[in-house]
């Protein structure tokens, strides 16, 4: 379980996070939604320890800030938004970075890298420099780097960004499967229908504050969408999936 207790993060003109409090159970895919500047990325950075926030962040009642580097690496992985490695490395090298803090044999490291690469349809790029990849291909490599350590807590900032629709769905299904294996997966996502279809719970943020947390149907009300996004939306839900028809107020 992840406990977020009164977490705040300073900003230039206003707090990026303001007294956010949540309790999130393992075994769930959690979608962070909200307009630009809502605090989605800031919350993920605070949990990952990339930025120091006030308040308490507990993983199974243990303070994340009190963990040493090895403990943190064995607990969580963080995929940043639009990360662009500057090194001229192969995709295998980049994925293997996710195992730096793991005490594994060379054969086990290789097995994990190969398996994770196959899972994200990256095998065709074996041996390729990351400098030769498109943004969408690099996005999948960075997700593989976060997944390869098999973390208990997986934090992904817009993991479907720059991906075509096939790979978007593949990634969402993969993250869903990760949660079904008992992990807590949190992702910032802008596609509201995809968030509604794949996530067990949604966290709606606006201007650094928590607006609502619950199942998609509890969060994506016309009132919440109007207040945070400034839109009116009609929902279409059937066995084939979820869609919506948004329009400005």
From TrEMBL:
InterPro entries: AAA+_ATPase, ABC_transporter-like_ATP-bd, P-loop_NTPase
UniProt superkingdom: Bacteria
Pfam families reported for this sequence: ABC_tran (PF00005)
SUPFAM superfamilies per UniProt: P-loop containing nucleoside triphosphate hydrolases (SSF52540)
Transmembrane segments: none
Full protein name: Heme ABC transporter
Domain ABC transporter residue range list: 2-232
Cross-referenced PANTHER family: ABC TRANSPORTER ATP-BINDING PROTEIN, HEMIN IMPORT ATP-BINDING PROTEIN HMUV
Keywords of the record: ATP-binding, Nucleotide-binding
């Amino acid at each position: 379980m992840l406990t977020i207790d009164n977490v705040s993060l300073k900003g230039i003109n206003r707090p990026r996070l303001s007294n956010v409090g949540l309790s999130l159970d393992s075994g769930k895919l959690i979608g962070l939604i909200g307009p630009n500047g809502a605090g989605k990325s800031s919350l993920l950075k605070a949990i990952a320890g990339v930025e120091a926030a006030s308040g308490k962040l507990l993983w199974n009642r243990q303070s994340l800030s009190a963990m040493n580097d090895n403990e943190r690496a064995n607990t969580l992985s963080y995929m940043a938004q639009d990360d662009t490695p500057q090194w001229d490395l192969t995709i295998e090298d980049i994925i293997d970075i996710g195992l730096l803090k793991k005490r594994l044999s060379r054969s086990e490291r290789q097995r994990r890298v190969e398996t994770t690469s196959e899972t994200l349809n990256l095998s065709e790029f074996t041996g390729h420099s990351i400098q030769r990849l498109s943004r969408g291909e690099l996005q999948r490599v960075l997700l593989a780097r976060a997944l390869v350590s098999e973390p208990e807590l997986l934090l992904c900032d817009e993991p479907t960004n720059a991906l075509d629709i096939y790979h978007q769905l593949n990634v969402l299904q993969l993250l869903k499967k990760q949660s079904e294996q008992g992990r807590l997966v949190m992702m910032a996502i802008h596609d509201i229908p995809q968030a509604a279809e794949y996530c067990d719970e949604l966290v709606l943020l606006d201007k650094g504050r928590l607006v609502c947390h619950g199942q998609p149907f509890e969060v994506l009300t016309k009132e919440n969408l109007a207040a945070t996004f400034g839109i009116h939306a009609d929902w279409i839900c059937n066995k084939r999936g979820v869609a919506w028809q948004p329009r400005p107020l």
